[in-house]
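B., you asked whether I could sanity-check this one before it goes into the benchmark set. Here's the sequence:
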Amino acid sequence: MKPRQVLREIEKVVMDTDDVVVGTDIGNINAVANGYLHFKRNQSFLAPMTFGNCGYSLPTIMGAKVADPSRPCIAMAGDGAFGMSVNELMTCARENIPVTPVVFNNG
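And here's what the prediction gave me:
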């Protein structure tokens, strides 16, 4: 799927529930997701903005899930940024932290 098509699908999920939390990593996904996703509830969009820290989305979304297990949590990152935190998937499995990572193939 093209990145904007993925964002449109995630936008539908966000619009269907007030509870979803989305975290993005640095780069284009951060800026573009900010234009596509609109939330009704505060503390629903977690983004590094100008901090520039690569590998931000997955650990941040894991923390959001632990803080409020009732909320669905989605982490979005390009393949390079996701590679910085991919090992955290072992923590998700070991500690039963169900999150949804979405990885964009940036080549």
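One thing to flag: The chain has a mean pLDDT of 89. Otherwise nothing jumped out at me.
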